[in-house]
């Protein structure tokens, strides 16, 4: 097996190494800059967008603002591009440690339609983002005041002056922000003819003794966006207590029931007279319970990709915990996730073809194709729709063609070959299925089942319990990704992930036991579905979040939100379905091994 795999592995290594370098270089390189007094400090303009729609951003120069004759763009790392950054040089002239007061920036003539454009943006609470020495500086474009019920007044003003405050330590910049505290907004109300205005700015330098290495913390402590995610310990403890009670309950009950079942069955065996009396239960189906299910290839592909995401999720959380990311820019996580996804494709291939071989499958190519496309096809479809909408609206979140090509290359040169290699290894390493009981040729008839043992009921129970264990946390995660909150309790995230998986496994074992005790042996697909349905609950929650808990609006943001919520729900389906199946399989092996056979 290894001999078959090795040469292929060798030829994939060089492009892989190159890619790693390319992806990580922008983060590894120290971009630290030292200045002398009077050195120019470049301020880049980045993006603007509605405050409540984090994934809808536009190029700063799309608005009628002070712009240079020739727009000069800055080259960006992959993470920055994925994050919707599009930096360009600004017309602000800032010099290191030189204070400036009311410096004119530019004279602007605004037509009526341009004023209308600005008013529109201010009404949608547009904020802007500049970047100075890698520090994001954010502020609102304008000012809006609504007051009085009758008569209703509606005032809109533009910030035509900005105060920059920059903190420095010796020869390095530590912190920067922009404030409009002492500024009067320039009114844009009742404009009927073109108007001209002068933009101005001030720069104030403050010495500080915060070390350069600590500037990330300084940034996090005084962010433009609110920081309100600290006080949910109680709800976490609450859900943890609930979960432990639940788990304890399931484990204890199952242990007792199993013990008495086993005692009874194994006793029956010796005094074989009262056979027909006590024998209805899971023992009687031992000749059917290991009969392989239909659609094996699909089942194995789900297990493969599910395992891959379990590894990926754990990997990312651990990396964030170890502080390997520059967390105040999301892009770092995005590009690391893409790289890790490509690298973990071998896990998917391995697990999928391993199970497929054990279940006696022989359509290898089909199995591998199914495994590679099980996630990448839905992802690509969703992404194309979302990207087209961004592109049609001129949002900077639309990926440029070069980035798309790069991502495709990553998938073609790394993801797909690694799936194939994993598949070859998995197939060659796989042995027998090692079922503890022999399967008879003729399948037993399954007696009619009561309604509470039907698949929809099991799916409702098996989906709701894991979901309720994480529902509180889900709010914070959604608020971080789709809102402006900042999540910093990554340790909690890890605990919640562990809780989710263990609740899923326990529920799955309990439901499988109930199913088998009704002499229904079709547990393979049922176990995947019953806990995998957590994904459905997560999608329903995301609909609830959109309508009730967020201020998102507009086509661009909605398409992005629902597209990626669907993918998230799908990933949860794959992960929990896998955990659930493997837990059930281990459980079933365990109980039938302990059964004394004739
Ligand atoms: C900006 O930074 C200055 C100097 O550190 C500080 O005094 C001020 O409160 C900050 N303003 C805002 C709006 O954060």
Automatic annotation (TrEMBL):
Keyword Transmembrane: yes
PANTHER family: TRANSMEMBRANE 9 SUPERFAMILY MEMBER 1, TRANSMEMBRANE 9 SUPERFAMILY PROTEIN
Function comment: Plays an essential role in autophagy.
Entry keyword set: Membrane, Signal, Transmembrane, Transmembrane helix
InterPro entries with a match to the protein in the record: EMP70
Gene Ontology biological process terms, A to Z: protein localization to membrane
Bilayer-crossing regions: 231-255, 298-325, 331-352, 364-386, 398-425, 457-478, 490-511, 523-547, 567-588
Keyword check for Hydrolase: no
Chief site of localization: membrane
Residues of the signal peptide: 1-30
Record family assignment: Belongs to the nonaspanin (TM9SF) (TC 9.A.2) family.
Cell compartments where the protein resides: Cytoplasmic vesicle, Autophagosome membrane
This protein's GO CC annotations: autophagosome membrane
Name the UniProt record assigns to this protein: Transmembrane 9 superfamily member
Membrane topology: Multi-pass membrane protein
């Amino acid at each position: 097996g290894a001999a078959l795999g090795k040469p292929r592995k060798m030829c994939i290594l060089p492009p892989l190494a190159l890619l790693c370098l390319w992806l990580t270089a922008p983060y590894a390189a120290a971009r630290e800059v030292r200045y002398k007094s009077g050195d120019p400090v470049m301020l880049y303009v980045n993006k603007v967008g509605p405050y409540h729609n984090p994934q809808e951003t536009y190029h700063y120069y799309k608005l009628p603002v002070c712009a240079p004759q020739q727009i000069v763009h800055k080259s960006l790392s992959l993470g920055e591009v994925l994050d919707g950054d599009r930096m360009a040089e600004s017309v602000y002239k800032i010099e290191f440690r030189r204070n400036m007061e009311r410096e004119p920036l530019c004279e602007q003539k605004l037509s009526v339609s341009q004023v209308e454009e600005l008013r529109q943006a201010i009404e949608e609470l547009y904020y802007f983002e500049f970047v100075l020495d890698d520090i994001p500086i954010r502020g609102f474009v304008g000012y809006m005041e609504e007051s009085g019920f009758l008569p209703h007044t509606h005032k809109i003003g533009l910030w035509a002056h900005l105060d920059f405050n920059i903190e420095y330590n010796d020869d390095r910049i530590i912190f920067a922000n922009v404030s409009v505290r002492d500024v009067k907004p320039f009114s844009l109300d009742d404009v009927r003819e073109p108007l001209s205005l002068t933009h101005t700015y001030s720069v104030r330098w403050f010495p500080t003794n915060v070390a350069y290495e600590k500037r990330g913390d300084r940034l996090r402590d005084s962010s433009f966006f609110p920081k309100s995610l600290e006080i949910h310990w109680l709800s976490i403890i609450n859900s943890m207590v609930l979960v432990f009670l639940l788990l304890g309950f399931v484990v204890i009950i199952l242990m007792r029931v199993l013990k008495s079942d086993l005692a009874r069955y194994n006793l029956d065996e010796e005094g074989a007279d009262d056979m027909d009396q006590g024998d209805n239960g899971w023992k009687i189906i031992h000749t059917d319970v290991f009969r392989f299910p239909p659609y094996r290839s699909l089942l194995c592909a789900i297990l493969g990709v599910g395992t891959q995401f379990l590894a990926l999720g754990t990997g990312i959380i651990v990396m964030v915990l170890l502080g390997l990311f520059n967390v105040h820019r999301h892009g770092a996580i995005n590009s690391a996730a893409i790289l890790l996804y490509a690298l973990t494709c071998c896990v998917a291939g391995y697990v999928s073809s391993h199970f497929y071989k054990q279940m006696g499958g022989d359509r290898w190519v089909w199995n591998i194709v199914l495994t590679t496309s099980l996630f990448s096809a839905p992802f690509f479809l969703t992404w194309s729709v979302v990207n087209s909408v961004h592109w049609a609206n001129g949002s900077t979140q639309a990926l440029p063609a070069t980035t798309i090509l790069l991502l495709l290359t990553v998938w073609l040169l790394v993801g797909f070959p690694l799936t194939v290699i994993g598949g070859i290894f998995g197939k060659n390493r796989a042995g027998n299925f090692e079922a503890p009981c022999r399967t008879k040729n003729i399948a037993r008839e399954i007696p009619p089942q009561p309604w509470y043992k039907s698949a929809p009921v099991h799916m409702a129970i098996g989906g709701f319990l894991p979901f309720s264990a994480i529902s509180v946390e889900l709010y914070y995660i959604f608020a971080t990704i789709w809102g402006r909150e900042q999540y910093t309790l990554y340790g909690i995230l890890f605990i919640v992930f562990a809780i989710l998986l263990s609740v899923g496994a326990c529920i799955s074992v309990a439901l499988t036991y109930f199913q088998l005790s009704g002499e229904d042996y079709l547990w393979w697909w049922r176990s995947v579905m019953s806990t995998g349905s957590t994904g459905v609950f997560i999608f329903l929650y995301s609909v609830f979040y959109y309508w009730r808990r967020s201020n998102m609006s507009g086509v661009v943001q909605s398409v992005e939100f629902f597209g990626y919520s669907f993918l998230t729900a799908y990933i949860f389906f794959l992960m929990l379905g896998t955990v659930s199946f493997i837990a059930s399989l281990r459980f079933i092996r365990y109980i039938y091994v302990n059964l004394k056979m004739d």
